[in-house]
Amino acid sequence: MKRLWRISEFQKCINAHYIITNPSVPVQFNRRHVTQTPRVDGNQTTMHDFISLFSDKWSYNPADTISKQILREKVSRLKDELLTQSEDVEKIEKILEENGVSLFRKYSDGSAVVELLTQLGSFPYLAMEVFSWRRKQLDYTAPMTVEEYAKGIAMAGRLKNVDLATELFKEASNKRLIKTSLFNALMSAYTYNGLAMRCQSLFRDLKMESACTPSIITYNILISAFGRLMLVDHMEATLREIKDLNLPPTANTYKGLIAGYITAWKWEEMEKTYQLMKAGPIKPDKDIHLLMLRGYAHSGKLDKMEEIYEMVKDHVDNKKVPLIRTMICAYCRSSDVAKVEKVEELLRLIPENEYRPWLNVILICLYAKEDLLEQMENSIKEAFERKAYITTVGVMRCIISSYFRHNAVDKLADFVKRAEYGGWKICRSLYHCKMVLYSNEMRLSDMERVLDEMDRVNLPFSKKTFWILYKSYRRFGQRSKLEQVTGMMFKHGHGIPLDACNS
Q1: pLDDT tens for residues 209-263?
Q2: Which has the closest alpha carbon to 181: 156, 209, 215?
Q3: Which Pfam families match (predicted)?
Q4: Which of 383, 388, 392, 502 gets the most CB atoms within 10 Å of its CB?
Q5: What average pLDDT is seen over the chain?
Q6: For residue 107, what pLDDT is reported?
Q7: pLDDT digit string (tens) for 270-317?
């Protein structure tokens, strides 16, 4: 009777809750099951189905939640203590022996170790020290679990120690700890380190394993592996296999596809996948929007890039400096009339410790092409101060052209000296431009000194060098020097100007 009373009371509770939330629908109960009248969509609802409607309430177990919170707090205290000694291996082991052993033995299912490794996710080297200690010290009393091995494998992959990840996988396999999560961890390690073929080989091994089968997570990892190597055909074949198996895709499935299309510069496929998400049950989340922001920036679709940016602006401005740099590059390549203003607005979001020489070079070219001499020189000054240097002729010519259009010969001369000293790319165009600008100002002696500078940096005179001299001397009536230059041109096989022959 006591048992029946409890069932009856339980049913009353359910009945009361349902009547409150659905006052227009009567509910009938019996001892074995619950039925709802009238039927919804022609289907009869069982007790299990009914409770699942309120799974967020009825599956909630306060005791489980409290115990998990207690575990997290205990592990957090241990983590904080470990972080104070993160550079001393002996002290780390001492802390674990004094405060970790009892905790880990209490949670013999490995949950405490897994939670500690999770909380140490931002400190992979320390996490690996903890895992190594756990592997050596506690296995004889509390055998390691699959979840612990999976965490260790993932951590080893993140540290680019593929050999250790493989060793841990074999060790777990020898202990007959075979689960899909173990394969997934090693496949992730291979993918993170660009070993797509090994990832695919392991996937084939998993398909032959009788104890477990690939999950949607497995296929997501495979898609990501192929996407990183721009193997679009393999990536799409994996997607077809997911559909053939009737596995429901997840947000990570689409994330891997979009990332792969961006890597391969398949802009149409990227857009189709994004639109498919928007039209389907799995809507784009923040990670997808961040990917699309990158994709639109690389593809030069500034309108769509700016639209996505407005959706994730707060997150990007605070945490995603690489994406900010990508947007700056997109503006620099564009014909947007307001690109300089937009670039400088984004630049203010980048901390000083996030300086990148390549971005500095892009900014120099932007200001040079826009004839913003002051901003260009400020960027050049920053590059010199940070001991960055330019190695391409194209960028140097871009700078030279800006000085030439501003007729800023003295500033150009100062830049050339600093470029020589700083190890920047040296080319004849630097000196030829100086010669032309000096000639335009009738500073022939300065123009001639440029020849000594060219000789000092081992740049032989070319036909263009002599032509600049010839035109300058002819323009200002320097007949004797004109004849000397004509002779030098003849001597070096550059030919004699026709007007020289006529005269």
Answers
A1: 988 999 999 999 999 999 999 999 999 999 999 999 999 999 999 999 999 999 9
A2: 215
A3: PPR, PPR_3
A4: 383
A5: 85
A6: 84
A7: 999 999 999 999 999 999 999 999 999 999 999 999 999 999 999 999
Regarding predicted confidence, which is higher, 342 or 99? Answer: 342
Task: Give me Rg for the CA atoms of the chain.
Answer: 35
Nearest to 373 by CA among 331, 346, 334, 408: 408
- 8 Å CB contact between 218 and 206: yes
Contacts of 289 (CB under 8 A, 6+ apart): 308, 311, 312
With the CA atoms of 483, 485, 487 and 491 taken in that order, what torsion angle do they form, in degrees rounded to the nearest 10? 180
Residue ranges of domains in the chain: 2-58, 64-281, 285-345, 355-455, 461-503
With residue 316 as reference, give the H or E element that holds it: helix 302-319
DSSP class of 29: E
Mark out the alpha helices in 280-372 (DSSP H runs).
Answer: 286-299, 302-319, 321-333, 339-347, 357-369
194 pLDDT higher than 60: yes
Return d(Cα 264, Cα 390) in angstroms, integer. 28
pLDDT above 60 for 21:
no
CB 227 within 8 A of CB 263: yes
CA distance linking residue 305 with residue 289, whole number of Å: 10
Whether residue 266 contacts residue 298, with contact meaning beta carbons closer than 8 Å, is answered with no
- 489 pLDDT more than 90: no
Residue 145 · residue 110 · CB < 8 Å: yes
By the 8 A CB rule, do 322 and 354 touch? no
Q: Place domain 64-281 in its CATH homologous superfamily.
A: Tetratricopeptide repeat domain (1.25.40.10)
Tokens matching residue 202: 């392991």
Question: The whole model's pTM is what?
Answer: 0.77
In degrees, to the nearest 5, what angle opens at C-alpha 249 toward C-alphas 248 and 251?
140
Secondary structure (3-state) at 184:
helix
43, 49, 54, 58: CA torsion to nearest 10: 160
Residue 256 contacts by C-beta under 8 Å, 6 or more apart in sequence? Answer: 220, 223, 224, 227, 235
Contact of 460 with 445, CB cutoff 8 Å: no
The most confident of 113-127, 257-271, 485-499, by mean pLDDT: 257-271
Number of Cβ within a 10 Å radius of residue 503: 11
Distance CA 294, CA 322 (A): 10
Q: Residues of 146-166 as b/e, b for ≥16 C-beta within 10 angstroms? A: bbbbbbbbbbbbbbebbebbb
